[in-house]
Amino acid sequence: MTRKVGCWKGWSFTALLFLLLADISSVAAAGPMAYVTNEKSDDVSVIDTATNKVVRTIRVGKRPRGVVISPDGRRVYISNGNSDTVSVIDAATGKVVETWPAGIDPEGLALTPDGSRLYAVDENGGTVTVIETANGATAATIEVEAEPEFIAISPNGQVAYVSNETSSTISVINTASLKVVASIPVAKNPRGIAFSPDGKLAYIASEQTEPGVLSVIDVAKRQVVKTIQVGERPVGIVVTRDGSKLYVSHGKSNAVYVIDAHALAITNKIEVGQRAWYMAFTPDERRLYVACGRSDAVSVIDVAAEKVIATVPVGKMPFAVAIPR
After folding, report:
1. Which of 164, 168, 181, 297 could cross-link to 145 by cystine, CB 3.0-4.6 Å?
2. What are the CA-CA distances from residue 23 to residues 18, 29, 46, 53, 56 (Å)?
3. Backbone angles phi, psi at 14, to 5 degrees
4. How far apart, in whole angstroms, are the C-alpha atoms of residue 237 and residue 195?
5. Cα dist. 322→37, 48, 49, 182, 238 in Å?
6. Predicted confidence pLDDT, tens digits, the chain (325 residues)
């Protein structure tokens, strides 16, 4: 018996093979997704970093700001300031699968290194809400100081630093006891925080000084050991994996400053969109994505060339970016 090959419900074998190869090619081309919170459109834009195109828009709560991704990349957490909640997004489907209470006006978010607890900074509540990610239960509500904004957890997971904008302090939380163990004075209106990879230093951006100030805290001593002047209204900070460079975004200068972390010297100024806020690296650190609120866009920086190579339109007033690392 002769079997006919090359026909299936009107499709030729060649056409089916072409479609299969095209599908495989498209999957291979997809890069890590960048999740961008948009304060004024109440949604999250998802950018494929391989193409720098928005591939999905996800509705969340009101005034989304903070965003973090679970260590396994399966969950994306969004703080909704005007809804007093955290939205939990399934990264595979792009659907909100849970919504958790998160104190009054949550803004900054941080996860413990193992992803078991989510810390949400409650700006108008003057607190930090600690949430168990396994079930959304509140593990603790920790009082900090006036108008807390941002939070970062040390690489070893032992302490969390909270920037208190009105108090011009950093609250140090012991993550084992869930209590504030120190308050460190810094320059006026601290916002962004980043730890050095070894956890020995913490970098703080203070936006309301003229010009802006970057403070360096000795984590063991719990005190500021160095400061440098930067541009106008510094907010976001990221550190390279090897700890050699800092990138600081500036809301009024509309730029990202490149800083030699060892010399604490500015080496370049990269012009980006308006109101440059929080940022994220791709896993290979070849690109840096910057939320530019008043441009309704994300500026994409080629890290080696130190220049913007793409501008991606997103929702209204983008605030922060997170990319799985």
Report:
1. 164
2. 9, 10, 20, 18, 18
3. -65, -40
4. 9
5. 9, 12, 12, 29, 11
6. 344 434 334 444 444 444 444 443 333 457 899 999 999 999 999 999 999 999 999 999 999 999 999 999 999 999 999 999 999 999 999 999 999 999 999 999 999 999 999 999 999 999 999 999 999 999 999 999 999 999 999 999 999 999 999 999 999 999 999 999 999 999 999 999 999 999 999 999 998 777 899 999 999 999 999 999 999 999 999 999 999 999 999 999 999 999 999 999 999 999 999 999 999 999 999 999 999 999 999 999 999 999 999 999 999 999 999 999 8
Q: Give rounded-to-5 percent helix, strand, coil for the chain.
A: 5, 55, 40
Between the alpha carbon of residue 51 and those of residues 23, 46, 130, 157, 301, the distances in Å are 16, 12, 36, 34, 14
**Angle at CA 97, nearest 5°, toward 63 and 288?**
55
H/E element, 181: strand 179-185
The Cβ of residue 74 has, within 10 Å, a number of other Cβ atoms equal to 13
> For 110, phi and psi rounded to 5 degrees?
-150, 145
Sign of the torsion formed by the C-alpha atoms of 155, 160, 161 and 164:
positive
Structural contact between residues 30 and 324, judged by C-beta atoms closer than 8 angstroms: no
Size (the chain), residues: 325
Read off the tokens for 213.
Answer: 């100030």
Nearest to 110 by CA among 63, 146, 61, 149: 149
Phi, psi of 20, rounded to the nearest 5 degrees:
-65, -45
Q: Find residue 56's DSSP bridge partners.
A: 46
DSSP letter at 52? Answer: T
pTM of the model: 0.91
Nearest alpha carbon to residue 107 among 85, 140, 74: 85
